[in-house]
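Our consortium's second objective concerns turning raw sequence data into structural hypotheses that experimental partners can test. To show how far this objective has progressed, the report includes one record in full. It was chosen at random from the queue rather than selected for favorable results. The single chain below, 443 residues long, was entered without modification.
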Amino acid sequence: MLGGYRIEGRRAAEIAASVERAIGAGELSPGQLLPPLRQLAEQLGVNPNTVAAAYRALRDRGVIETAGRRGSRVRSRPASAPREWLRVDVPPGVRDLSTGNPDPALLPSLGEALAVAGSRYARRPALYGDAAIGPELEGLARAAFDADGVPDGPVAVTSGSLDAIERVLIAHLRPGDVVAVEDPGWGSLLDLIHALGLRAAPVAVDDEGPRPQDGERALRQGARALVVTGRAQNPTGAAVSAARADELRAMLAAHPDVLLVEDDHGHGIADLRLHPLAGTSAHWALVRSTSKAYGPDLRLAVLTGDQLTVNRVRGRQRLGPGWVSHLLQDAVVHLWVTHAVNPRTVAASYDARRDALVGALRERGIAAHGRSGMNVWVPVPDETGAVARLLQAGWAVAPGARFRTSSPPGVRVTVSPLADDDIGPVADALAAATGPAPTERYE
């Protein structure tokens, strides 16, 4: 059943650790069946309740899944085997469209911003006991939220959007709780949910965002939280329209105790209007990252939400990292105040490349999707075959398995590295590698 690997341990924690080590080392494969409780207990010379506790801990951490009499097996994507591993090795000479990175040519120079931050630090260094968020950043963030119609609430700052989402989920949920998530959706978020011992309930996505009927089904089945990407959704490029936002608000109004988390990582690179959903849920948070507009290494996101949620985030943060560097905060303030990057210019550049590729694929009979942001989602009948054929043609794309829970296969193409004269060759290669895809919805 386990090949050459032997699970070890006398206590539940030791048994669970032995299984996790084996998965991380590749000695236990995704989908592999684990021994029945009593059989493993007999092998280890322990009480079956000890093995049951180990399996329960592994299940809560998203490492294994159990199916009653059909036994327990390693998850197809265990938390100890992140989705980021589901990537292609890009050989020399192959153009890499798989990363999801912004175009470096559209990122601002940080020299002046960091110099200004350093000058402020020289005049007054941040010290223990100072406020976690600087007043300038707090004021600018709140004003931007107000301009987008986000309900009033306190502001906090975290080390990126995933850090913020993790802190918000931990503030309200416990292992075993269900989180409704977009499908296809952000692979790192799916990893995070499993790593926290939570369970993901897929919500199908179309070009206008999560489909209300699927969201309603997830909430009726017990989901305690819903995560929504307002625009530039990864990987599909979906953006929540005004009409869809009304439908989702009506859905949430019937479930006021559900935690709502909105991810606006597309701020600064997508000029479609944001239609926030907050206002119907008792507990909510909206997260806005600087990574796509200013660069992934500028690890900063601002969030707002209801008082209780933000207080819990701030309180737990104080017991960990304490705060996000005021040097980074001041650098972001300088970038925002001086408009070092024109969001409309950046958005227009991504729009032109994305729309050109979607249009070229449509001309070739391929139903691709990408309403906003820097990614295009292409449905395919066979991900492995499509990725392999594209590599042979000189293009690397991201396999859809990194982003899917139960939705049909696809590949993600990041348009950031593309120039105008690349559009035709990429579209030709995708058409040859995938064949005509069905035109119905892609969720």
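The partners drew two points from this record. The two ends are 35 Å apart (CA to CA). Confidence is low (pLDDT under 50) at residues 437-441. Both points have been shared with the crystallography group to help prioritize constructs.
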